[in-house]
TrEMBL record, chain A:
Keywords: Hydrolase
SUPFAM superfamilies reported for this sequence: Oligoxyloglucan reducing end-specific cellobiohydrolase (SSF110296)
Hydrolase found in the keyword field: yes
Official protein name in the record: Glycosyl hydrolase
Record's keyword annotation contains Cytoplasm: no
The organism of origin for this protein: Spirilliplanes yamanashiensis
GO terms classed as biological process: xyloglucan metabolic process
Transmembrane intervals: none
Domain of life per record: Bacteria
GO terms assigned for molecular function: hydrolase activity
UniProtKB/TrEMBL annotation, chain B:
Signal peptide positions on this chain: none
Gene3D superfamilies, alphabetized: 3.10.20.30
Stored InterPro entries: Beta-grasp_dom_sf (IPR012675), Mopterin_synth/thiamin_S_b (IPR016155), Sulfur_Carrier/Prot_Modifier (IPR052045), ThiS/MoaD-like (IPR003749)
Sequence intervals crossing the membrane: none
Protein name: Molybdopterin synthase sulfur carrier subunit
Domain of life: Bacteria
Matching Pfam families: ThiS
SUPFAM superfamilies: MoaD/ThiS (SSF54285)
PANTHER family cross-referenced by the UniProt entry: SULFUR CARRIER PROTEIN CYSO, SULFUR CARRIER PROTEIN SLR0821-RELATED
Amino acid sequence: MAVLLAIGTQKGLFLAQAADDRRSWQVGPAHFAMQAVYAVAVDRRGGAPRLLAGVDSSHWGPSVAVSDDLGATWQEPDSAPLAFPADAGAAVQRVWQIAPATDAEPGVVWAGTQPSALFRSADGGRTYELVRSLWDHPHRPEWGEGYGGQAIHTVLPDPQDPARVVVAMSTGGVYQTADGGATWRPTNTGIKAYFLPDPWPEFGQCVHKVARDAADPRRLYAQNHHGVYRSDDAGETWQSIAGTLPSDFGFPIVAHPRRPGVIWGFPLTADGERHPVDLKCRVFRSTDAGEHWTPQSAGLPEQPYYPVVLRDAMCADDADPAGVYFGTRSGEVWASADEGESWAPVAEHLPDVLCVRAVTI
Amino acid sequence: MATVLVPGALRAETGGESRLPVEAGGTLGGVLDEVAARWPRLERRLRDETGALRRYVNVYVDGEDCRRTGGLDTPVAASAEVQVLPSVAGG
């Protein structure tokens, strides 16, 4: 079994492959060198897997490129693949998320951007159109931004119902549609926004990442700017699942590809102390939907550890047992071939890792 | 006929051409509109979809930084050289 691991960094996209059940990795040279790759996706709904990369140059602006030959060649349209219409009065600054839709919509790909907007592609991710219904939402003037900028960084199509899509933005919170994108509403009940005068607002939360349970699409997990939550009712209400974590701050949250209730996170001490708790490099896993968490650190560095794992820099593959991966702002990438029980390095000394995605090929 | 000078970093967007002859005169905005029509892959690297020049793209018309001479309204003479240069930026 071979696995492809796509590593988006501040200065390019690196593609790593392991042909021996994820024991040894070959990391290729940078694609899009000197361009930030905040979003990468692998779409396997067609024949060959399609790589999609959101790339942006500090000089020349953002774009989306696709490859149907595992990165040997990349294609971009002549015109900007995603752009606001003239009357929107806005410009895309960065693509934060690329999410292929469900098997029921084979050509549909979603993209979340900075500023906070959702785009939809009907041609497999080559070109996109703004989802006006969300852009025109009356809440939009009140959506804020954090240090990383204002963005829709999470898009979660419902694998059982193409009409339902969840998005998450910083700041703003979780919004979702149940009618194919015609209307959108905030679903943040129970998520605290400690940084606002009213800490329980309808919207305005600083959600960092949302993941969907492998078995139950109505079950969602959210890592917030302080606060880790689960919803068992498709986001209508949220309950804290931070109880046995050493901290409720962090960026990523990842769900197992098949096993219900299995999730991973990488807690940091606090908003004001952004390093791993006790300076220990540890992934935390729960196998009961967040009721209990246990650290996983076999093989990870044992010396005091400062690097941070960003919101999309952790993922799972679709193998059995599932592989888990994370990359750091210090340019390290770690892999586990046994669901987090043990870890081994994939790469080090890369640029800051912004996102990772892994699939069997 | 004005000439647009393309930096090395963007010549992949022009098929390798470093000097682009343009018919449009009048203003820098008009020149970039012609670039958009004839070399769209280049123009979208220079301006965003609102028409604004990207922050770290500098354009000099006959050696003068357009940001000091009226921006996209900068006059472009028929014989002008419009030079695109990336600014000193990045980490």
